[in-house]
């Protein structure tokens, strides 16, 4: 299969899974292995995630503009902006400290990915059952203290298979945030988080971005943008009525399949 076709498939995988609590990074790492796609240093994996971020920025462009334009006059807009900034700090610090270990050790282990899938699925099922009655129904009204704890939950996403959106959504639900508001806050938190990851990887790989590698990233980026733009609204509508349990069971089943593939010997 041509490398650009592989890049397109991986772009779709990225776009579909980025905002679901199933770990887009883990799916891309698995997809890379199945397709035989070479991604030294995880540069392609990280950089095409910006396509998903641009998609959610496009979908929420009116809200973003309204918040920015209202910072001087609207207390809710200021609170929301501060909440997002506060929530992104823990992962930026953790990423700066542990990114090399994550890329060289954790991302190379299918066992770690599988265990994280299963453990994350179990946690989601438990939280769906025991979550307290929400008192925050709008992402813009996220209290600053709770936003910081949600940001701590996001740091777990450094472990491939945990899921950035899963960590933030679970933490928010435990803090009495409504499902849809938790998911929407996760979307907005993804914007600065993934933009920072993109900038970091772009700078480190700037000398490698030429020819075929740049074309692969461009194709993956475009497909990630399109597929993310198509999945975000249906995802929000689904979780409002059905919750996250189906995604939890998907994680558990996939984790078991991966463990069986790794350790089963005929």
Topology summary:
Elements: H1 3-17, H2 24-35, H3 43-47, H4 49-59, H5 61-69, H6 75-104, H7 110-130, H8 144-155, H9 164-174, H10 179-204, H11 211-242, H12 245-263
Helix pairs in contact: 1-2, 1-11, 4-10, 4-11, 6-8, 6-10, 7-9, 7-12, 8-9, 9-10, 10-11
Explain how this protein is built.
By secondary structure, the protein is mainly alpha-helical. It has one domain. It contains 12 helices and no strands. The mean pLDDT is 87.
What is the H/E string? HHHHHHHHHHHH
Unreliable runs: none
CA-to-CA gap between the ends?
Answer: 28 Å
Strand content: under 5%
Total DSSP helices: 12
Describe the structure concisely.
This protein is an all-alpha fold and 266 residues long. The chain is 76% helix and 0% strand.
Which keywords apply here?
single chain; 266 residues; mainly alpha; 12 helices; globular
């Amino acid at each position: 299969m041509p490398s650009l076709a592989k890049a397109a498939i991986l772009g779709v995988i990225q776009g579909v899974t980025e905002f679901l609590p199933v770990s887009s990074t883990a799916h891309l790492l698995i997809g890379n292995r199945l397709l035989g796609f070479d991604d030294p240093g995880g540069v392609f994996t990280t950089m095409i995630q910006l396509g998903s971020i641009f998609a959610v920025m496009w979908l929420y462009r009116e809200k973003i503009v309204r918040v920015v334009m209202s910072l001087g006059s609207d207390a809710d807009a200021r609170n929301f902006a501060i909440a997002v900034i506060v929530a992104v700090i823990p992962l930026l610090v953790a990423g700066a400290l542990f990114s090399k270990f994550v890329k060289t050790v954790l991302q190379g282990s299918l066992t770690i990915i599988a265990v994280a899938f299963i453990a994350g699925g179990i946690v989601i099922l438990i939280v769906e059952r025991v979550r307290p009655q929400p008192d925050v129904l709008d992402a813009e009204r996220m209290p600053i203290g709770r936003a910081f704890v949600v940001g701590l939950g996001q740091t777990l996403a450094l472990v491939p298979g945990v899921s950035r959106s899963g960590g933030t959504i679970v933490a928010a639900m435990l803090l009495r945030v409504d499902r849809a508001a938790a998911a929407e806050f996760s979307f907005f938190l993804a914007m600065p988080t993934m933009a920072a990851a993109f900038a970091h990887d772009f700078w480190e790989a700037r000398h490698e971005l030429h020819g075929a590698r740049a074309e692969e990233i461009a194709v993956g980026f475009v497909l990630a943008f399109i597929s993310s733009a198509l999945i975000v609204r249906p995802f929000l509508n689904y979780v409002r009525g059905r919750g996250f349990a189906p995604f939890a069971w998907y994680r558990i089943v996939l984790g078991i399949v991966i463990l069986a593939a790794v350790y089963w010997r005929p």
